[in-house]
Design a protein that fits this description.
The protein is an all-alpha fold. The protein has one domain. It contains two helices and no strands. Helix 1 packs antiparallel against helix 2.
Length: 128
């Protein structure tokens, strides 16, 4: 009987630790993505300010042609769109990874519940 208690304790401890690890992972990664996105947005804003300052200085020294200015603005907008696409792709990959982890935990939980039910049936047969 003592051995059964130890085995049951080990099973529950494994389940609880796995659940805690999944919980920490699922909380940590979205926070990291949010933090990364806010840092990227701050860097973009700072680069835009620097770009505006450099552009105004360049205009003072050498007035650019209207066509060149349009192309540089389009390049800047295209770079921002690509950066947004990259962050969206990274968050999608993260969600897929979390989904796989949840499926693995669900499978382990199902196996654990089946083992518990089997153990209860065996104990109920042994008790009378």
């Amino acid at each position: 009987m003592n051995c059964d208690k130890k085995e049951s304790f080990r099973k529950w401890a494994t389940f609880v630790l796995s659940s805690l690890a999944l919980l920490v992972t699922s909380v940590r990664d979205p926070i990291a993505i949010t933090f990364r996105a806010s840092v990227q947005e701050t860097v973009r804003q700072e680069l835009a300010r620097q770009h505006n300052i450099a552009a105004s200085e360049a205009r003072d020294q050498n007035p650019p042609a209207a066509g060149n200015e349009v192309f540089t603005r389009l390049e800047h907008d295209l770079a921002a769109i690509r950066a947004d696409g990259a962050t969206g792709e990274a968050s999608h990959k993260l969600l897929v990874e979390v989904d796989h982890c949840l499926l693995a935990v669900e499978k382990k939980l199902d196996l654990f519940l089946k083992e518990c039910q089997r153990d209860r049936k065996l104990q109920s047969r042994d008790d009378p």
